Amino acid sequence: MSPKAPCAPSDLRSCRDAVTLSRFSPTVAGDTSEDSGENIPQKSLTVPGGEASSIKNVKHKSRGEQRGRRRVKANDRERSRMHNLNSALDALRSILPALPEDAKLTKIETLRFAHNYIWALTETLRMADQHGHTAGYLPVGSDPSSPTSVSSAEWDSASPAESAYVTSADFDPRHCYKILSRDQSSVIPVTFYLKSFCGENYVKNTWH
DNA sequence: TAGGCCATCTGGTCCT
DNA sequence: AGGACCAGATGGCCTA
């Protein structure tokens, strides 16, 4: 589920970077014909000795160097931009309900989980408002801000139909709400949803 | 070995 | 002109 990253952030210049950057080292960039668009025909560069051609060669080389430098800078910016994006994603993971250490969500899972989690929290507030007594809706002594406040025993008694409605492969918190609103269960809907999404391991590993 | 996930590079486009 | 953003391509790592 969570393949290890081949290049840690601290190894930015390792792996394929080393190869790619060398492609744009001044000597290489100027000597190749990879600079599409800005290329001077290769023929004018291959005339040996002539002064004019050597000037052209220098010009071409410096343009190639400039282009190479721009490309390297752009690569650096892009890399750090993606690292920022990943940091934001990690921050998002960190505020989502705890998962077992070895169950790090992928990027797409994180986004979907966050989306549904927000939806579930919103729905929780809406239903609480509708009932007009939040305290009676939540388990006694529970901390509404923490999804870990419900015991696994409560789960077992409160969610007989979960597997019939929600699987980890095809989860949708709205299904949970349909079940809960039908029998007015006292279990926090969000946690019901989390269990449905994460499975028994979530309960076993984090709720004790 | 195929497929999923990821990091990185790259060229194009838009914006300042 | 240069930076930010984006999407496609590529190749490595990991797991079933």
Describe this structure in words.
It comes from Cottoperca gobio. This is Neurogenin-3. By secondary structure, the chain is mainly α. It is 63% helix and 0% strand. The protein has 11 helices and no strands. The longest helix has 45 residues, at 51-95. The protein starts with 15 loop residues before the first helix and ends with a helix. 17% of the residues are buried. Mean pLDDT is 53; it is low at 1-53, 134-192 and 196-208. The chain binds a DNA duplex (16 and 16 nucleotides) through helix 1 and helix 4.
Task: Please state the overall shape, judged from the principal axes of the Cα atoms.
Answer: rod-shaped
Given as residue ranges, the uncertain stretches (5+ residues, pLDDT < 50) are 1-53, 134-192, 196-208
- Average pLDDT, rounded to a whole number, is 53
The count of β-strands is: 0
- What's the total helix number? 11
| Elements, N to C (H/E) | HHHHHHHHHHH
Cα Rg: 29 Å
Biggest β-sheet strands, sense, barrel: none
Structural class: mainly alpha
Helical content stands at 55-70%
Organism: Cottoperca gobio (Frogmouth)
GO cellular component, one term: nucleus
Domain BHLH: 69-121
Biased composition (Basic and acidic residues): 63-79
Salient structural properties:
disordered C terminus; rod-shaped; disordered N terminus; about 210 residues; mainly alpha; DNA-binding; bHLH_dom; single chain
